[in-house]
């Protein structure tokens, strides 16, 4: 019978990993055009428009500087605290904003999903590309601030694209995880911001991670060592400020990036056929 032919499969059957990746590559123009539109439209209804891509993180730095640098005196013992703080805010915000946008990358594009056949993983990919684009402007600002504060370009700056690649791998995997979770349980998008806000305070953005170990003792050391956000921030601070890091920091960052990307991609693909049907 025709139904028993091994060549036939259901229309909605999931394709192999190799075929799926080939389909993603064939649609790479689609993945690139989405983030460009998103970047242009993000602040189009405001007076200052795209200037808010830089204005928002700068205002955040200003608030943190007043609270932690002036009022709480967390700057004690930290050279170039303003640059140190700005690096932490900008780099953490890249991960935070990417994960937040990734959480709604499926649910906010259900009309597109139902209209066009394409690998759904391109939606979180486009989110990552979008935020990397805006982060590049922030990197130029960081470079300018570094020069103003006496940290001139040096060979360590050459490692910045590598660190951005490592961080982007982690961000993409995390975005895929929360995208699937939020597609099945819409409250995830409401919970994620609070988790990321907590992450701001436990990842060395505004004050050194040593503060946590001093308060909690050796039992917090493992958490400090394995914290993916803190390790990513340390890499950027090493590039701009020359703050000491160990090979362990780089290894842990790479391990988090590879693990999160591979597991997140696998986790996301398992629900591929359900997206857009809720």
What features would you describe in this structure?
This protein has 278 residues and is an all-alpha fold. Helices cover 68% and strands 0% of the residues. It has helices spanning 17-26, 28-41, 52-71, 81-103, 110-115, 122-148, 160-184, 188-201, 210-216, 221-226, 228-241, 247-270. α11 (228-241) packs across α12. It is globular and about 60 Å long. The two termini are 35 Å apart. The model has no long low-confidence stretch (mean pLDDT 86).
What is the element layout, followed by pairings?
Elements: H1 17-26, H2 28-41, H3 52-71, H4 81-103, H5 110-115, H6 122-148, H7 160-184, H8 188-201, H9 210-216, H10 221-226, H11 228-241, H12 247-270
Helix pairs in contact: 2-6, 3-4, 4-6, 4-7, 4-8, 4-11, 6-7, 7-11, 7-12, 11-12
Short structural summary:
This protein is mostly helical and 278 residues long.
Essential attributes:
68% helix; mainly alpha; 278 residues; single chain; globular
What is the residue-mean pLDDT, rounded to a whole number?
A: 86
Order of helices and strands: HHHHHHHHHHHH
| Biggest sheet descriptor | none
| Helix content estimate | 55-70%
Figure out the total of helices: 12
Low-pLDDT sequence parts = none
Secondary structure category? mainly alpha
End-to-end Cα distance, whole Å, is 35 Å
Strand content: under 5%
Oligomer: single chain
Global Rg: 21 Å
Note the overall shape. Answer: globular
Tally the beta strands: 0
